[in-house]
Amino acid sequence: MWIMLLFQVTVDIFRSRDMGGLTKALWLLLVLVTPYLGVFIYLILRGGKMAENQYQVASAQQASVDDYIRQAA
After folding, report:
1. Pairwise CA distance, residues 38 & 51, whole Å
2. Which residues contact 16 (CB under 8 A, 6 or more apart)?
3. What is the band of 16 on the pLDDT scale with cuts at 50, 70, 90?
4. What does each C-alpha distance from 44 to 23, 59, 65, 66, 68 come to in angstroms?
5. What are the residues whose beta carbons fall under 8 Å from the beta carbon of 30, sequence distance 6 or more?
6. Nearest Cα to Cα of residue 15 among 42, 48, 41, 49
7. How confident is the model over 34-67, as pLDDT tens digits?
8. How far is residue 20 CA from its own chain's centroid?
9. Which residues are within 8 A (CB) of 13 and not within 5 positions of it... i.e. 6 or more apart?
């Protein structure tokens, strides 16, 4: 479970469009150097935004599937 959480945080760092490159690099460095503390701090500070990002991705995928089904039908 820890590896999944670490992977999700890492993906969210790269996926976030509201952070600049330097901010992403600092978060990634924090998560890689001190994984437990880095992930814990990330979830506290950006957990809500992480959920919003996952919701946006899921919505876009659902819209893509719906569009494909309409075209196929």
Report:
1. 18
2. 24, 46, 49, 53
3. confident
4. 16, 24, 33, 34, 37
5. 37, 38, 41, 42
6. 49
7. 989 999 999 999 988 888 888 998 999 999 999 9
8. 14
9. 19, 24, 27, 28, 31, 42
pTM (whole model) above 0.70: yes
**Would you state the pLDDT for residue 1?**
86
- Which pair of structure tokens corresponds to residue 71? 């075209």
Structure tokens at 22: 């330097």
If you count them, how many residues does the chain have? 73
Q: Which residues contact 41 (CB under 8 A, 6 or more apart)?
A: 30
